[in-house]
Specification:
Distance between the termini: 52 Å
Radius of gyration: 20 Å
Low-confidence stretches: none
Mean pLDDT: 83
Helix content: over 70%
Largest sheet: none
Number of strands: 0
Length: 197
């Protein structure tokens, strides 16, 4: 596929995702994953999990960060530019149009009911994205324990209304992941030195 054609495909794909998805970044995750790992096969499930880890760890919405990263991975700066533009343009246009008559728009009874339905659908999209990612995750003891602890902590925070940001869970998970890697690295170096003697 030529560079221009791939840039156009990136733009259109993310434009479609931005146009049809309600509920923000987390609701888009399942659709982005399906589009790029199953349909286009541009990313493996493991690479997509890495994209999410990077997108979640950097400032900004996860969907925009994912689009930027995927575009950059495929076609460098211009891939990142057109992927990000494609994702945010539908929301920008829709919000601008709604802002012109927002008060009258929100007074309509059927709009309120539509938003109630959209909330339920968004909850399902976010949950399905989490389940799909967990099922595709390598089932190492570290990954399983990290998932269970994170999920338990998030549920406890919600149930007991603790004032604890999910950003700290991400940072703690990243720190534990680095510590785990460092322990493995030191173990391998120790084995190599022991094998040379």
């Amino acid at each position: 596929m030529s560079k221009l054609k791939e840039l156009f495909v990136l733009f259109l794909t993310f434009f479609k995702i931005g146009l049809i998805t309600f509920g923000g970044g987390y609701a888009m995750v399942a659709i982005i994953e399906r589009e790029f790992t199953e349909r286009k096969k541009w990313l493996s499930a493991e690479e997509f999990a890495d994209v999410l880890a990077i997108a979640e760890s950097t400032p900004g919405p996860i969907s925009v960060n994912s689009a930027t990263f995927i575009g950059y991975k495929r076609r460098g700066f211009w891939g990142a530019f057109f992927s990000t533009l494609g994702l945010i343009l539908p929301s920008l246009i829709i919000i601008f149009v709604i802002s012109l008559f927002f008060d009258r728009f929100m007074e309509l009874e059927y709009v309120k009911y539509a938003f109630y339905g959209i909330r339920a659908g968004v909850s399902f999209l976010i949950l399905s994205a989490g389940i799909r990612l967990f099922l595709k995750l390598k089932k190492t003891p570290y990954n399983t324990i990290a998932f269970i602890l994170s999920a338990t902590l998030l549920v406890a925070i919600s149930l007991f209304s603790w004032n604890f940001s999910s950003v700290f869970i991400i940072l703690i998970g990243g720190g534990i992941g680095l510590l785990s890697w460092l322990i493995g690295f030191i173990r391998n170096k120790t084995k190599e030195k022991g094998g040379r003697k």
